[in-house]
Structures are given as C-alpha cells and as structure tokens.
Amino acid sequence: MEISAALIAGVLIALLAVFTVIRAVRIVPQARARNVERLGRYHRTLRPGLNFVIPYVDHVHPKIDLREQVVSFPPQPVITEDNLVVEIDTVLYFQVTDPRAAAYEIASYLQAVEQLTVTTLRNVVGSMDLERTLTSRDTINSQLRGVLDDATGKWGLRVNRVEIKAIDPPHTIKEAMEKQMRAERDKRAAILGAEGQRQSQILTAEGDKQAAVLRAEGGRSAEILKAEGQSRAIDQVFQAVHRNDPDPKLLAYQYLSVLPQLAQGPGSTFWVIPSEVTSALHGVSRAFTESLPKSGAIRETSSDELGTRADEDAAHAAEEAAEAVADAAQADATRHITTPDSQPDITPARRNAEPMLPTQPMPRREGS
C-alpha cells in the first residue's frame, strides 16, 4: 500500500515537472510578439524564436501581429459643406511598431483607429462641398493620413495609407448628377457637331472660291484668246481687202447679192428699195460688159454700142432685183407683216430703226 502511494506521488511529481518545463518554454513565430508580465507588471516582450519564462511567475499575453494590416470600416454618414449627407467607405493600412504601447497605451487600438478615422473624415469633408468632395479624394486621403499618423504614434501604430473606397451621395443627387452629365455630354456633342459643320462650310467656301477664281481666269483667258483671234481675223481680212484693191464694181455686186437676204430676215417688217439701186445696177452692167471675152483680134466698139449693151444689162439686173423685191414682199405677206402702204403712221423712231443701205453717187455712163 505504501509502495503504490509512493508510485502515485512520483508520477504526479513527474507530470508537474513536465508541465512546468512546457510552461517555461515559449516559441514565438516570425513577425509576431508577446508581452510578458511578472507578478502583474510588464517585464519584457518576447521576440520571434525560442524564449524562456518563469512558470507560475511570468504571465505571457496573446500574440500581437507586427505585419501591415488592412481594415475596411463600414460606410459612415458625413455632411458636406452644402448640407448634403453622403456615405463614405474608408480602408486603413496600418502596422504595429511597438507591441508594448499597443497593449498598454490603448485598450483597443482597432476601435480607436476606426473612431479617429470617422471623426477626422467628418472634419475634412465638412469643409468641402459635394463636387469638391467627389473630385478631391487624394486631398482627403493625405489629410486623413497626416492626422491618424500623429494621433496613433503614441499607441505604437504607424498608419501607412488611408484610402476612400466609395462616396455614395443620396439617390436624388445621383439622378441630378446623371442629368447634368448627360447635358454636358450633349453640349459637347453639339459643340463638336457645330465645329465640324463650320469647318466643312469653310472648306466648301474656300473650294468654291478657288473654283470661281479658276473659272474666271479660264474665262478671261478664253475671252483674251477669242479677242486676239477676232483681231487677227479682222486684220487679215482688212489687209487682204487692201492688198487686192477692190473696185466699185465688186462692191456693187456684193451690194446686190445682200438685198435678198435682207428681205428674208425674220426681224424685218418692211423693205425699202433705195435710189442707189440704179447706180448699183449700172455698175454691175458695166462690170459684166467689160468682162465679156473677146474672140480673135481685138474689136473696137463705139460708145453707142457700149451704152446700148449697158442699158440692156442694167434692165436685166433691174428685173432680177424687182423679182427679189416681189419675193420679199410675198414672204412678208405670208408672215402677216404689213408694208409701208398699209402703215401710214410710222413714227420717226421706227423709220430710224429700219436698216438703211449705204448710198453711193450715181456713176455716169460713158458716151452719154
């Protein structure tokens, strides 16, 4: 009985020794830290690796993570300068640099950081209107980081970054903003369309201007060339006429050949036979008389024979002219155009408007 009691006592002592050894050894992982209190007072901080403590005297606190941590806070209502309530989501990046301060300077550093972020955010955003709040995220982030870094330094924390994840204005404000953005886009589209139309009209006007200038230059060149051609033609005709030295006989023949054309003209209302027709007939008869071929030896004719022959030719030419006049009168009657006999009241302006044939003196017949 005594042996069994001694055995039990030995086993208990062995178990107590093993348990004491286990409590004396503490292994801390990398990037972790544990605070040690001896008899209720902070003694030291256990670093990563193998550490020994005094069992039943030293109290080891839970591990503290020394890595950079990311905390996303729930949306917080914030009032802007223009009295609009917006909800802002923030993300905080921080790291514990002093495990002792993080454990003993603040009861819960996560809760403290969250409340400090909310109050600082309300102070910063409260001095901005909605439009500035939506477009000044970098400014808000830098101001939050500066305030949090100064306040959390004594807690053994270091705030690396503060990011605003979302800014949600009220639903009515969202609708108004969407309408405003749609109006701005429509405005820019209208401005771009007007600019494009203006550029198109400018280019079209410049093209029309250049085309008109080129057409005008082409017309001017054509008119100049045409005038030069007419001038050369007139000059050549004038030189040919003077070079050939036409006599009154040729001019009289041309005069008589033009008379039927004057009678058949579409704009002639009546036809005047001038008194110079007789002179022209004498000239033509003389031309035909002098141009008759002479067979054999040259035969001399008397002045009486020449006069008789000229009279016959003149009478024949007069008959042809009378026939041409009759044809012209018949053509005028067909067109229902009155003659001078049916129109006694012809104004002087009408008479002046009628074409008048050039007059020439009556040539004197030889031998008369």
Automatic annotation (TrEMBL):
Q: Which organism is it from?
A: Saccharopolyspora erythraea (Streptomyces erythraeus)
> So what family is this one in?
Belongs to the band 7/mec-2 family.
* Record's compositionally biased regions (Polar residues): 336-345
Q: Where is the composition biased (Basic and acidic residues)?
A: 306-319
Which named protein is this?
A: SPFH domain-containing protein
Query: What segment(s) does the record annotate as region Disordered?
Result: 295-368
| Primary localisation category | membrane
Tell me yes or no: is ATP-binding among this UniProt entry's keywords. Answer: no
Quote the subcellular location field of this record. Membrane
